[in-house]
Specification:
Layout: H1 11-18, H2 26-44, E1 51-60, E2 65-67, E3 73-82, E4 91-93, E5 99-102, E6 107-110, E7 117-127, H3 134-151, E8 159-161, E9 164-166, H4 169-174, H5 176-185
Antiparallel strand pairs: 1-7, 2-6, 3-4, 3-7, 5-6, 8-9
Helix pairs in contact: 2-3
């Protein structure tokens, strides 16, 4: 098994964190890193690793702000509006002088409103972190560590891969440090 491309931590860093110097648990560790990453991203409602989003569609809000689901924004390429009334593709580029972007929050603000509609805007940008913040890395490695030390005996359930079954919700609920860290990264809609 390989680590997913968006894994929050590397196998080597996790092994250092756990004090493991052999390779005998590498496959289990990679599985747990992948599962921990997916849990954290699902809990927070966003992807953390730098990823290019091409033509991601958004609903017009009827106000002057549009919130990107993936942030911080590393680079921004384009913003288009569908001018069609019959759901056909008639995309018009919005001039970059008509809007500005808060890169840290992923909020696009326009001088006029984003016309209400369903998927009537599309955006191309790179969102996420070029380097995963250390507290997120710590959280991911802590999930892996907690599973290794008490996972099978603590009634952890719900996600399965092969003969391993786990849910990280119990660890999240009982570890206030991890809960506080992840709460700081939750995707909150305006």
């Amino acid at each position: 098994m390989d680590l997913v491309s968006y894994a929050l931590v590397t196998l080597d860093n996790t092994k250092t964190f756990l004090g493991i110097s052999t390779h005998e648990k590498d496959e289990l560790l990679k599985m747990l890193i992948n599962m921990s990453t997916d849990f954290i991203e699902t809990k927070c409602g966003r992807r953390f690793a730098s990823t290019v989003y091409t033509d991601s569609k958004y609903n017009g809000t009827g106000n002057n702000e549009l919130v990107l689901t993936q942030f911080p924004v590393i680079s921004f390429t384009s913003l288009y509006r569908n001018t069609s009334c019959d759901n056909s593709d008639n995309w018009e580029l919005i001039d970059s002088s008509d809007y500005w972007i808060d890169l840290s929050s992923g909020v696009i603000s326009k001088t006029s409103i984003f016309s209400k509609g369903v998927q009537n805007y599309k955006v191309t940008y790179t969102g996420g972190y070029a380097t995963i913040p250390y507290d997120l890395q710590y959280s991911c490695m802590t999930f892996v560590s907690d599973f290794l030390t008490k996972g099978k005996s603590s009634g952890i359930k719900s996600e399965s891969l092969g003969d391993h079954s786990i849910t990280f919700e119990d660890i999240y609920q009982t570890n206030n440090t991890i809960k506080d860290i992840l709460n700081n990264y939750m995707n909150v809609s305006l």
